[in-house]
Structures are given as C-alpha cells and as structure tokens.
Design a protein that fits this description.
Blueprint: H1 2-23, H2 28-46, H3 53-56, H4 62-86, H5 88-97, H6 100-109, H7 116-133, H8 148-170, H9 177-201, H10 209-233, H11 240-263, H12 269-287
Amino acid sequence: MIYLLFSILASTLIFILFKLFSTYKINTLHAIVVNYLTACISGLIAFDGTVSLGEITQFNWFYYTLGLGALFIVVFNLMALTTQRSGLSVVSVATKMSVVIPIVFGLLYYKESLGIYKGIGIVLALAAVYLASVKSTSDLKTKKSSLILPLLVFIGSGIIDTSLKYLEEAFVSETDVPIFSATIFGAAAVIGIFVLIIQGIQGKFQFQLKNIIAGIALGVPNFFSIFFLVKALRSGILESSGIFTVNNVAIVMISTFVGILFFKEKLIPKNWLGIILAVISIFLVTIAQF
C-alpha cells in the first residue's frame, strides 16, 4: 500500500507544479521536454546496476516503451489542444474518466473479480471524478466537432495506463522497473527534443532558464509517479482494477483539497458530493479485496 500512497503523492505534486507553471508563465512544452529527460535520468540513477544503450534494446519490453514514449507526447499535446478549444474541465474529465479502460481490461483480460462492493465502488469512482472535476454546467458545453479531441484524450490516457499494467505483468522483472520507467521517459524526451529542434529551425524557440528549472522540478515526481504505480501494480495488495480506481480517485480528492487550501479554488455543491463519493468508493474497492 505504501507504493500506491507514494504514487498518489507524486501525482498530486505534479498537479501543484502545473498550477505554478501558469503563475510563473512557464513554457509548458519546453518544461515538459526537460521533465522527460529528468525523469529518464532519475530512472537510470534508481536502477541498481549498470546498463548500456545496447543492453536496453535487448529487453523484451524495449520497443513497447518507445511506443509509450511517443504516446506520452501525443496525449500531452492533445490535452493542450483540448484545453484551448473546450476548456480545462473538459480535458480534466476526459483524462480522469479514462480510468475505466484499465479497469475493464483488468476485469476482462486478467479475469479479476467483480463483487458487489467492488462494482459499486467503481461506479461511484467514475461519478466522483466527474463531479469533482466539473465546476459548472457551462464548462462542458462544446461543439460536436470538438468532441473528437476529448475522445482522443480519453482513449490515449486509458491506453497508457492499460499498457503499463500489461507490460509490467508480461515483461518487466522486479529489478527492471526503474530502467523500464526511464526508457519510456527517454523515448518521450527524444521525440520532444526533435520538436524543439524544429521550433528552433523555424525561429520559434526561445531559451529561458526558468523553463529548465521547472522541467527538472517536474521530472522527479513524474518519474516516481510511474515507478511507484508499477510497483503498486505488482505488489499484490489490490487487483489492478482496484489499484487504478483508488489511485485515480485519491489523486482527484487530494488535488481538490490542495486547490482549496493553497490556490483558493472555490467548490460548488456537486464538487463536494464528488469528494464524498470518492471516499466511499475507495472504501468499497479496498474492502472488496478482503
């Protein structure tokens, strides 16, 4: 359970840093690229042993991580476009509701149990992330032509979580978790660097030290959010459907409280209802395992 707790805390710290990005006018794309590079280096440091690039390519999971790294960049840009065109609440709901994809995958592919408590808990969890994320009805009003972007964010985020579960189960040994995580971030970093090079050729790149600092600050918790999530998935404390439910809902709940305490965000009644449902869903999913 300690790995799950650390993953939740690391993900919440990411939320805080993204909030600060807007305050200090950080170039998000530039910081994200540095973040991936930092996360990759963090994984290499955390790996107990030495490994060369040639050895990394021999791992069974290597080419899958290249695909995941590319997906990280693509989903991030889709999230940015969705935010610009449809609003923050729309992208927030699309990202958080994607938890249903790894949950269903765990239930169907791994034949995980679905008792009455767990079933109710999962349904309440989905309701909780929706209610806690949406600030007003108008936030979700969007043109039908713009629905494709939230849908792609939903699918992409779900595929990332599902792929992490499948790869750690099928290919990743206990000792390889740090290097596995580092390779995913390394692939994302390489793709991001190419994007920055293109910006430089087009004369659109402007170096700012604060973007580097922000990226480093983001990279460490970003690495550990994935590292500890993979550790939690293989810990056996909960089935993967339970892990993803508790992880996602707890992040929403804690992030909401952080927003209230430190960023003076205002909540409407249905946000509070979402928090209450989140607590109940975590309780139900957890006791369903015992």
